[in-house]
C-alpha cells in the first residue's frame, strides 16, 4: 500500500485526480474503465477532475464507468439514488457520456439476477482500471459491512444500523433509508487493476488504522485491500491519527518522490 498523508481534503483530491488522469491518458483505444464511488469522500477528487476537464481539456469521452452500489428499490431518478448522485456531482460536468455509466439497477425485478449480471457487465468491459473508494467508520467499503465474505461478489446486502444512521443525513428520517442495497462484493472490488481509497476526519481514524495496520478480517472489510498489489490510501491528518507508523509512511513517500525525481 502507498500511504499519502495530506494536509487537507483538497490536497487529497489532487492526489486522487492525478491517478485518474494517469489512467485516462494511459488507456488504449478502447478507453479507460473507471470505478466510481458515491459519498462525500470522493467529492474533492471529482471537483478537481471537473476543473481539469474545463480548464485543461482532460477528456473522459472514450471512458466507461461502473458504480460500486445502489439502494434496492430506488429508481435512477430518485433524489437519493447513487446513480443520480454521481450524475449531479460528476458526470453532468464532464464529457463522459451518461450511456457509458452503469450502476446496479435498484429497481430490477430480480435483484439477485441483476447482481450476477452486473459482475458480468464489468467483466465484459474488460474489468475496472482504477477504482476509487471511501471507507465507512465501521470499516465497510461499498456496502460490504462487517461480516462480509472476503471473496464476495456483487449481491443484495442488508445495511447495518450504523450505516443507516450514517446515511440518514441524506434522507428526511432514518426510516426512509432503504434497508437493502446491491453492492459490488469484496472479491469484485479486488479485481480492479488499481485502487485508491480516500478518507478524511477523526471518525474514520479507527477504520483507517485497521485498513493499513490491522489483521485481515471480515470484522473490518476494508482490510481485504491488503491482499491487492496496487492500492493507494489518501488520508488527512485526522483520518491518519490512529496509524502507529505514520512517520514511516511519510518517510517512504519522501524516498519515492526522490526516486522518481532521479529517474527523470
Ligand atoms: P463518506 O462515506 O464518503 O460519505 O464518508 C464513505 C462510506 O461510507 O463508504
Defining key terms:
alpha/beta, 7-stranded parallel beta sheet, 8 helices, 10 strands, binds 2-phosphoglycolic acid
Report on the structure:
By secondary structure, the chain is α/β, with parallel strands linked by helices. The chain has a single domain, classed as Rossmann fold (3-Layer(aba) Sandwich), CATH 3.40.50.1360. The protein has helices at residues 9-26, 43-56, 82-89, 111-124, 161-167, 186-190, 205-213, 246-263, and strands at residues 2-6, 33-36, 64-67, 69-71, 101-102, 130-133, 155-158, 180-183, 194-199, 231-236. Strands 1-10-9-6-2-3-5 form a seven-stranded parallel sheet. It has a three-stranded antiparallel sheet with strand order 4-8-7. β2, α2 (43-56) and β3 form a beta-alpha-beta unit. α1 (9-26) crosses α2. It starts with a strand and ends with a helix. The mean pLDDT is 95. The chain binds 2-phosphoglycolic acid. The site of 2-phosphoglycolic acid (PGA) has 6 residues, from loops. Residues 39-41, 134-136 line the site of 2-phosphoglycolic acid.
Task: Summarize the structure in short.
This protein has 8 helices and 10 strands. With 264 residues, the chain is α/β, with parallel strands linked by helices.
- Average pLDDT over all residues: 95
CATH architecture: 3-Layer(aba) Sandwich
By DSSP, the count of extended strands is 10
Please outline the major beta sheet: 7 strands, parallel
Number of helices: 8
Distance between the termini: 23 Å
Query: β content, as a range?
Result: 15-25%
The helix/strand class is alpha/beta
Q: Give the ligands present.
A: 2-phosphoglycolic acid
The spatial strand order of the largest sheet comes to 1-10-9-6-2-3-5
Fill in the CATH topology: Rossmann fold
Percent helix: 25-40%
CATH class: Alpha Beta
* Rg over alpha carbons: 18 Å
Q: Which residues form runs of ≥5 with pLDDT under 50?
A: none
Q: Indicate how many domains the architecture comprises.
A: 1
* Approximate shape: globular
N-to-C order of helices and strands: EHEHEEHEHEEHEHEHEH
Amino acid at each position: 500500500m502507498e500511504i499519502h498523508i495530506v494536509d487537507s481534503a483538497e490536497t487529497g483530491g489532487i492526489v486522487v485526480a492525478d491517478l485518474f488522469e494517469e489512467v485516462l491518458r494511459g488507456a488504449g483505444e478502447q478507453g479507460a474503465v473507471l470505478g466510481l464511488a458515491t459519498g462525500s469522500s470522493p467529492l474533492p477528487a471529482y471537483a478537481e477532475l471537473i476543473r481539469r476537464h474545463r480548464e485543461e481539456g482532460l477528456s473522459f469521452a472514450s471512458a466507461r464507468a461502473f458504480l460500486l452500489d445502489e439502494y434496492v428499490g430506488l429508481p435512477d431518478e430518485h433524489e437519493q439514488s447513487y446513480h443520480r448522485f454521481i450524475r449531479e456531482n460528476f458526470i453532468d460536468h464532464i464529457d463522459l457520456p451518461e450511456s457509458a455509466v452503469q450502476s446496479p439497477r435498484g429497481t430490477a425485478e430480480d435483484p439477485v439476477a441483476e447482481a450476477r449480471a452486473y459482475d458480468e457487465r464489468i467483466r465484459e468491459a474488460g474489468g475496472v482500471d482504477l477504482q476509487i473508494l471511501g471507507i465507512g467508520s465501521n470499516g465497510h467499503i461499498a456496502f460490504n459491512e462487517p461480516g462480509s465474505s472476503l471473496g464476495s461478489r456483487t449481491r443484495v446486502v442488508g445495511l447495518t444500523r450504523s450505516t443507516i444512521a450514517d446515511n440518514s443525513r441524506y434522507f428526511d428520517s432514518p426510516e426512509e433509508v432503504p434497508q437493502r442495497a446491491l453492492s459490488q462484493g469484496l472479491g469484485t472490488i479486488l479485481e480492479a487493476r488499481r485502487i485508491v481509497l480516500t478518507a478524511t476526519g477523526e471518525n474514520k481514524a479507527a477504520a483507517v488504522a485497521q485498513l493499513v495496520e490491522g489483521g485481515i478480517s471480515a470484522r473490518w472489510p476494508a482490510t481485504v485491500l491488503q491482499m491487492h498489489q496496487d492500492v493507494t490510501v489518501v488520508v488527512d491528518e485526522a483520518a491518519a491519527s490512529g496509524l502507529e507508523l505514520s512517520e514511516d509512511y511519510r518517510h517512504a513517500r519522501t524516498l519515492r518522490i526522490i526516486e522518481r525525481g532521479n529517474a527523470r
